[in-house]
Design brief:
The protein contains 18 helices and 13 strands. By secondary structure, the chain is α+β, with helices and mostly antiparallel strands. It has three domains: 178 residues, 2-Layer Sandwich (Formiminotransferase-cyclodeaminase, Chain B, domain 1); 141 residues, Formiminotransferase, C-terminal subdomain (Alpha-Beta Plaits), CATH 3.30.70; 205 residues, Four Helix Bundle (Hemerythrin (Met), subunit A), CATH 1.20.120. The chain is globular, with a radius of gyration of 29 Å. The two termini are 56 Å apart.
Length: 563
């Protein structure tokens, strides 16, 4: 079972006092196992988005401590800012990340709300998936009237808090209320305009957001609203689903922005919201200058954005992940207002454990590490890396071919080959480290105690399992390197002919990777006690070895015929 992880994204009503912000944010890391991912203050909004992650029980404890500290340090009776708000910790959503459902996360939201209401005396409204009645699912309904209308709201029986006091007492005057939810991953995303007009920014927001705008009799914003038979305002839907948005002016930057919440990026991804906003702004005589990401974003959302713009440019999608991140940042203008640091904004990068992998070494350091006294990295890791270099050459030829003048009608064909090459390359790079990890598992097995009969049995099983794994990894190197030769063959025949030799060198590297990994399969398999397993993997490895030699000769013969 996967480890359960929840992300918590509290928004506190303080964006200017850095000392207060850091004190509030730091409290979460006093809970063991909690990782603080991001602290993103906004001066104009006077609001900070804090992001942390951990196991559910620990997240609830950290969130409770944060809400408590915010209530101590922030006085809502003195708060002013551009963003709607009604509490020191204005909202505190819980987001399922791994091994836990949204429904299960809602149970934790209820537990947090109960504790905050009863122990801290802060009125709590549950919204979205945690809501206990339909009208409270929408945060805007829960927060309507904001802090200034909270006294009246608390006195209304229909808006009695789910937890905590239903009175505007001295404590609540200072703390305000808190909205707690369980929700899917949400991207808070602002788009920058070359105007200072909030009204014009709102007009674009109404064009785009799902809720659209109110229908008026004369079709103008100041016209009389059209009502349906139930007396409800008739709305003209916006262009995009799962999008909320408003316009505002940001004094800090001297521009108007459209502030979007993208509530389901599988329905409306970030790049689509940006692109539609560009069209709407242009039609209104305005220009989008860039955008701003608040909090963190999944890696795939950035990759999808890069692929979207590469496709529009008819450029190959088979380029490195790091290059795609650069293209996404520039295409969306994410560095328009301040530098965009992928290692601080992309959730998968932030969650990396920090341990240095072999493939993170410089070329010189990797060679020095290999040449040292340690037995790892050894032939298996080197074989995997040679294979990665080989398919990288094939991928290079595909990308060059996709960009060749006069071949524009074939760019997608070469892009597909480059994408295949990237998949092979990434698998082989992963196997560079995994081969060394597999060897280390054997060493760890031999280090287990062997004093008692039981300890000897445990040790023998650990060594056997580790040896099997250390045989399976180089076998995967063989499979992947051999299969990657299809890229080099295709590019030798159909790719740009000036790079024929590059495709050939790539194939020779793949062949070397297969043979090197085959040596490792054979030397590790001889120590496996389960001979049926050993003989089966050796048989399959021998077949790949023979197929590789045939493929290599085919490539050599072809190149000889062309040069």
């Amino acid at each position: 079972m996967n480890k359960q992880l929840i992300e918590c994204v509290p928004n506190i009503s303080e964006g200017r006092d850095i000392e207060k912000i850091n004190t509030i944010a730091a409290i979460v890391e006093t809970v063991e196992g909690i990782k603080l991912l991001d602290v993103d203050p906004g001066v104009a909004t006077n609001r900070t988005v804090i992001t942390f992650v951990g196991e559910p029980e620990k997240v609830i404890e950290a969130a409770y401590l944060l809400i408590k500290k915010a209530a101590e340090l922030i006085d809502m009776s003195k708060h002013f800012g551009e963003h709607p708000r009604f509490g020191a910790t204005d909202v505190c959503p819980l987001v399922p990340i791994s091994g836990i459902t949204l429904e299960e996360t809602a149970v934790y939201a209820h537990a947090l709300g109960k504790r905050v209401g009863e122990e801290l005396g802060v009125p709590v409204y549950l919204y979205e998936k945690a809501a206990q009645e339909k009208k409270r699912e929408n945060l805007a309904n829960c927060r309507s009237g904001e802090y200034e209308g909270l006294k009246e709201k608390l006195s209304n029986p229909e808006w009695k808090p789910d937890f905590g006091p239903a009175e505007f007492n001295a404590s609540v005057v200072k703390s305000g209320a808190t909205a707690i939810s369980a929700r899917d991953f949400l991207i808070a995303y602002n788009i920058n305009l070359n105007t200072t007009s909030t009204r014009r920014a709102n007009a674009i927001a109404f064009d785009i957001r799902e809720n659209g705008r109110a229908k008026t009799e004369n079709g103008k914003p100041n016209g009389k609203k059209v009502l349906d038979e139930n007396g409800e305002v008739v709305r003209i839907p916006g262009k995009l689903k799962a999008v909320k948005g408003i316009g505002w002016y940001i004094e800090e930057y001297g521009i108007a922005q459209i502030s979007y919440n993208l509530t389901n990026i599988s329905i409306t991804p970030m790049h689509q919201a940006f692109d539609e906003t560009v069209h709407s702004a242009t039609s209104r005589g305005l220009r989008v200058t860039g955008s701003e990401l608040i909090g963190l974003i999944p890696l795939q959302a950035m990759i999808d954005a890069a692929d979207f713009y590469l496709t529009k440019q008819e450029r190959s999608l088979g380029i490195a992940e790091s290059e795609k991140i650069k293209i996404a940042v520039k295409s969306l203008g994410l560095d328009d207002l301040k530098p965009f640091h992928p290692n601080e904004k992309i959730i998968e990068y932030v969650l990396k454990d920090g341990s240095k992998r072999l493939i993170d070494f410089t070329l010189t350091d990797f060679a020095d590490e290999t040449a040292g006294e340690s037995m790892a990295p050894g032939g298996g890791s080197i074989s995997a890396y040679v294979g990665a270099l080989g398919v990288s050459l094939g991928t290079m030829v595909a990308n060059l071919s996709a960009h060749k003048s006069g071949w524009d009608d074939k760019w997608e064909i070469y892009s597909d080959w480059a994408k295949k090459g990237q998949v092979y390359k990434n698998k082989l790079l992963m196997l560079v480290d995994e081969d060394t990890n597999a060897f280390n598992q054997i060493i760890n097995g031999f280090r287990l105690p062997k004093t008692t009969l039981e300890e000897k049995e445990i040790r023998a099983i650990a060594i056997e399992n580790a040896t099997k794994y250390a045989t399976e990894i180089p076998f995967q190197v063989m499979e992947t390197a051999y299969e990657s030769m299809e890229v080099m063959h295709a590019m030798a025949v159909d790719g740009i002919q000036n790079s024929l030799s590059d495709a050939g060198v790539g194939a020779l590297c793949a062949r070397s990777a297969v043979i090197g990994a085959y040596f490792n399969v054979r030397i590790n398999a001889k120590d496996i006690k389960d001979r049926k397993f050993a003989e089966n993997i050796l048989k399959k490895a021998a077949q790949i070895y023979e197929q590789t030699l045939t493929s290599e000769q085919k490539m050599i013969d072809y190149i000889d015929s062309k040069i």
